[in-house]
Design goal:
With 116 residues, the protein is an all-alpha fold. The protein has one domain. Helices cover 87% and strands 0% of the residues. It contains 3 helices and no strands. The longest helix has 77 residues. 0% of the residues are buried. The mean pLDDT is 82.
């Protein structure tokens, strides 16, 4: 049920995103699509499209490198936190064993004192 509300809330934004993203690249005009188009005009549009695709590929590559760097930093932080958590847990387990031993010794002393 909650997915439906999320989808309903996101529909107005999808149209805006699509209207911005779809015309990102140069498209061929109707006269360039025809079989009688001048080859130099078609080549010009194709060259423009190739340049745009290369530019988009470079931007994507830079974005991926930045994301990989951020992911690497996040993983380092998680590993550091995990090692600290492990160290603290080991300390707490040691304290648990010590306190359990002291409690058993105290219980033994109390039972011995009652019996005497």
């Amino acid at each position: 049920m909650s997915w439906v509300s999320v989808l309903k809330a996101s529909f107005p934004y999808i149209r805006d995103i699509a209207s911005v993203a779809i015309p990102a690249f140069t498209s061929r005009s109707d006269n360039n699509k025809s079989a009688l188009a001048v080859p130099s005009e078609v080549d010009s549009v194709v060259q423009t499209q190739i340049k745009e695709l290369q530019s988009a590929a470079v931007k994507n590559s830079e974005s991926i490198k930045a994301l990989a760097h951020n992911l690497e930093e996040m993983i380092r932080g998680l590993e550091s936190s995990a090692s600290q958590f492990k160290h603290r847990t080991e300390k707490l387990v040691a304290l648990l064993y010590i306190s359990t031993t002291i409690a058993v010794v105290a219980l033994g002393c109390a039972i011995w004192a009652v019996v005497q």
